[in-house]
Design goal:
The complex is a heterodimer.
Chain A lengths: L3 E4 L2 E4 L5 E7 L7 E6 L6 E5 L3 E2 L7 E6 L2 E6 L9 E6 L6 E2 L3 E5 L1
Parallel strand pairs in A: 2-11
Antiparallel strand pairs in A: 1-3, 3-8, 4-5, 4-9, 5-6, 7-8, 9-10, 9-11
Chain B lengths: L2 E5 L2 E3 L5 E8 L8 E6 L5 E7 L6 E3 L7 E6 L4 E6 L8 E8 L7 E4 L3 E5 L2
Parallel strand pairs in B: 2-11
Antiparallel strand pairs in B: 1-3, 3-8, 4-5, 4-9, 5-6, 7-8, 9-10, 9-11
The chains are: A mainly beta, B mainly beta.
Chain lengths: 107, 120
Amino acid sequence: AIQLTQSPSSLSASVGDRVTITCRASQGISNSLAWYQQTPGKAPKLLIYDASTLHSGVPSRFSGSGTGTDFTLTINSLQPEDFATFYCHQFNKFPITFGQGTRLVIK
Amino acid sequence: QVRLVESGGGVVQPGRSLRLSCAASGFTSSNYGMHWVRQAPGKGLEWVAVIKNDGSKTYYADSVTGRFTISRDNSKNTLYLQMNSLRPEDTAVYYCAKDIRQEAADLDQWGQGTLVIVSS
């Protein structure tokens, strides 16, 4: 199975900061990667699909990039509602896999 | 407005069976692949299974292969997950999720989840 390794596992930041989360795949997955945001007790929400396309209704401060094995999620000018756990997800090969998650907390 | 509503969760003894359902509305479900994803308490997301839009193909995580079966009834806009030989490690919130494509890609809509507890 393709392993997705997110870094960091936890991140502390302040409102207004710019943060970057990385996701590395154990083998090439082209652009078959999505990013999700999950707050406690809620279902995940799609942020970025196909590695770099912003999902409808998602604020433009979120962006994604990468192809092959290395991907990034960037959040510009953090807002209070952005503090959550973020997951990457690959669907290039079965079994589909998720990264272990990155928890973003308020500094 | 897209809506996915899971049901069927509960407490079940190890070795027993349970069937989850996911009622879809607000979109033409026969056009999209559908998934089950689970999340054990305090843990990350784990993909469980996917079924192609027309039901012709299914794929499973290694951890559930041979025990779980995903199916769909497009006439009823409903997705199912039949779970047999349940184990304590199957304890999780189970989400159904809509794919953006026919088979397996990004998941753009999720239900609120249904909790399954496997315990004696």
